[in-house]
Amino acid sequence: MTPRRFRDIVFDHAARHGRDHLPWRSRTASPYAVLVSEIMLQQTQVDRVIPFYRAFLRRFPSVRALARAPLADVLSAWQGLGYNRRAKMLHEAAQAVVGKYGGRLPKEVSELEKLPGIGPYTARAVAAFAHNKDVVFVETNLRTAVLHHFFPGDALVKDAQIVSILEKALPAGRARDWYAALMDYGAHLKRHGVRLNHRSAGYVKQPVFKGSKREARGAVLKALTQGAKSAHFLERLLGTERKEQVREAIATLVRDGMLQKEGRSYVLPGADRKTTR
Description:
The chain is mainly alpha-helical.
């Protein structure tokens, strides 16, 4: 396999099966909309993201609208999507964009990486999809495609090796089209049983959600979207056997600034105190 042949395979698949219908693939999608999609797509399947993405942009149609919204409203809009800390980071990133960049998302990777919650992958993905920048990055679908064609049977393949292939395969001036096509192709391989990320040195298996601390944090936040709740009420959300886990979840959420204590109750930051139980 050569980088040129690899490109031909990927673009040929895109011509026949590309997912151009995805809302964030629209040529009119703003850099802000691209950022929202990238944050939502982290560890979440495309089909689950689509309705949340559309609803979120209806509620917060611009980076300024998101920045001025109370965190409580943002967390409420995020409910059901999971990994709620992403919502807080996106909210903080929007505030930074307004405060430091006048409401315009920066184009350079180095500036994007300065925003809260924006790591190397997200910064490069936004640069590629929003601004067609010729940058190189790795994510699960890209990794699958490269492993399948360039490292058959190899184990513990380093991301640096994958990046080296992607650097050679990237068609200059076509980053947006290339990464869309490559992600679609990698997703296609997975749907047809090609699951190779365990052969990557950087592979980390996603932990089980049921019974996890993440489930406890999500349950607390979901309850608080309905209004202020007492500690006694929250601690009973998942049954007496998980009372201590929920208590720890509350402490973590307070420390992370995702909820606050008011008297004997807890409330989302910026929320109206509707009811207390």
